[in-house]
Write a structure and sequence with these properties.
Length: 217
């Protein structure tokens, strides 16, 4: 929830009327997707904790399948990121009067983004041997995404080759789609959604296989 407090702090520091509405309409969609990313990846950190303290072994002693454990972990990460993003959307609408255009498609993009980030977090946490390593590896993905994927400024303003590198991260496509919803729907939105679908499917598939291997070792 740090991005929420950050935006509220900006309001009290400069005054709501003193903040450029045009920039806030640009910034908040980026903060929404960044919040989803942080919420999902922080939740997937529980995988490495469960692995370290032997929680999986105790869970498997109960009459539950390995698939249900994997599904529960994926859904918990996705749900946490989705709720965090929705809270940020509400703050953006009520405090800054930012329009998100097509609400249904916006929520779809957020869900696909959360699935993608959950997949990334599951892969990283599954490969890490202990929590500090997982945190360091996740930050190696999260901080570059926050800085070059267009959260705070357009990726077109970045020097080459950073805009090309940004296109390898799902955060770029999520931000691009949500920002486009506030204006007229463009064909690029459907490309963004298609990329997020592929990203979500691939990372969830890989992450699930890694997590299953950990649980059934």
């Amino acid at each position: 929830m740090f991005p929420v407090f950050m935006m509220l702090a900006l309001s009290f520091r400069w005054g709501i009327q003193g903040i450029d509405p045009e920039y806030m309409s640009f910034l908040i969609p980026g903060v929404v997707t960044m919040t989803a990313m942080l919420g999902t990846t922080n939740e997937t950190m529980s995988i490495v904790w469960d692995r370290t303290i032997g929680t999986f072994d105790r869970i498997l002693a109960a009459p539950v399948s390995s698939i249900s454990i994997v599904l529960g972990k994926i859904l918990s990460g996705t749900f946490m990121g989705f709720v965090s993003a929705v809270v940020m959307i509400i703050v953006g609408k009520l405090v800054y009067n930012v329009s998100f255009g097509n609400v249904a498609l916006t929520l779809l993009v957020i869900i696909l983004s959360c699935l993608s980030f959950t997949g990334i977090g599951t892969v990283v946490s599954g490969l890490a041997s202990e929590p500090r390593e997982a945190s360091m590896l996740l930050n190696a993905f999260r901080f570059p995404m926050m800085l070059i994927c267009g959260v705070f400024f357009p990726i077109e303003a970045l020097p080459i080759p950073l805009p090309w590198i940004a296109r390898f991260f799902p955060l770029t496509y999520a931000i691009e789609a949500i920002r486009a919803f506030s204006g007229e729907l463009k064909s690029i939105i459907y490309i963004d959604i298609a990329v997020l679908v592929v990203y979500a499917f691939t990372t969830i598939l890989v992450g699930s296989k890694i997590l299953l291997k950990i649980i059934t070792r």
